[in-house]
Specification:
single chain, 255 residues, mainly alpha, Helix Hairpins, 3 domains, two-stranded antiparallel ribbon, 2 strands, flat
C-alpha cells in the first residue's frame, strides 16, 4: 500500500488505527480552540504570535494532506468546508504578513470556525450522534456564532468600554443582546459599539432564534418523499405527513 492509500485509509477507514488517528485530530482541534479561548484577552506578544504561526503551519500541513489524498480535488476545493479551513489557516498565518495588531485581533476571532470541522469529526466518530445530524449541526452553529460575536465585541470594545473588562463581560453582553433581554448594565455607547449592537440585533437575533428552534424541534431524519418532495420526517414515520404516501425509512428497529 502506497503512502496516499495509507493516509486515505486513516481518514476514511474503520480500523482501530484509523479511529485513533481521527481522535488525534479531534484532540488537536480541541487544543487549538482552547488555546484561543485561554489567550483571547492576552496581549499579542511575539511568543503568542509565534505559537499562532506554528499552529497555522500544522493546520496547513494537515489541509494539504487531505487535498493530496482526495480523489475529487476540484470538488474538495469548491466545498464550503474548504473555505472555512482556508479562513482559519489565514487567521493563524496572518502575523507573517500583517503588523496591524488591531486587525490581527479581529482575524483571531475567526478561529472559532474551526469548530465546524470538529463537529463534523465528532459526528462521524460518536455513534450516539448518528440520526441527530440536524441537532448537532444547529448546536454547533449556535456555539460558533455566539463565540464569534463575543470575540468581536471583546476585540472591538475592550479598550474603549469600561464595562467590558474581560471575555465574560463580552459574552454576557452578547447573550443578553441576542435574547433581547437587554438588562442595560453593559452597553456599547461609542459610535462603533452602536453599529456593532445594531448589527447583532438586526442580523444576529433572527439567526439565534432560528438555530435554537432547530435544536429543540422534534427529532427528524432525512427521508425525502418521492411524491411531494418533503425531506424530513419523524424517525418512526411510515407515511409522508404532507401527502400521505408511503415512505421508507431505514432503521435498526429501535424506534
Amino acid at each position: 500500500m502506497d503512502a496516499r492509500s495509507t493516509f486515505r485509509a486513516l481518514y476514511h477507514g474503520t480500523s482501530r488505527r484509523a479511529q485513533a488517528f481521527r481522535w488525534g485530530i479531534v484532540a488537536f482541534d480541541v487544543a487549538t480552540i482552547s488555546f484561543f479561548l485561554a489567550t483571547a484577552t492576552e496581549p499579542l506578544t511575539p511568543t503568542l504570535l509565534a505559537i499562532d504561526i506554528a499552529i497555522g503551519v500544522a493546520i496547513l500541513a494537515e489541509f494539504l494532506l487531505r487535498f493530496w489524498i482526495n480523489i475529487d480535488r476540484k470538488r474538495f476545493l469548491l466545498s464550503g468546508s474548504t473555505l472555512v479551513d482556508v479562513i482559519v489557516i489565514a487567521s493563524f498565518l496572518a502575523p507573517l504578513f500583517l503588523q496591524n495588531f488591531a486587525f490581527l485581533r479581529v482575524l483571531r476571532t475567526l478561529r472559532f470556525l474551526q469548530a465546524f470541522r470538529l463537529i463534523d469529526d465528532l459526528r462521524d466518530l460518536v455513534p450516539a450522534l448518528s440520526g441527530r445530524e440536524h441537532v448537532v449541526k444547529a448546536a454547533g452553529n449556535l456555539i460558533v456564532f455566539i463565540f464569534v460575536v463575543t470575540s468581536l465585541v471583546w476585540v472591538l470594545e475592550a479598550q474603549r468600554n469600561p464595562h467590558i473588562t474581560n471575555f465574560e463581560d463580552a459574552l454576557y453582553f452578547t447573550i443578553t443582546t441576542l435574547t433581547t433581554t437587554g438588562f442595560g448594565d453593559i452597553t456599547l455607547n461609542d459610535r462603533l459599539g452602536r453599529w456593532l449592537t445594531i448589527g447583532i440585533m438586526v442580523f444576529g437575533v433572527g439567526l439565534f432564534l432560528r438555530l435554537v428552534q432547530q435544536i429543540f424541534r422534534p427529532n427528524k431524519v432525512y427521508a425525502p418523499c418521492v411524491h411531494c418532495g418533503l425531506k424530513y420526517h419523524e424517525s418512526d414515520s411510515s407515511h409522508c405527513r404532507h401527502c400521505g404516501n408511503i415512505i421508507h425509512i431505514e432503521t435498526d428497529g429501535d424506534v
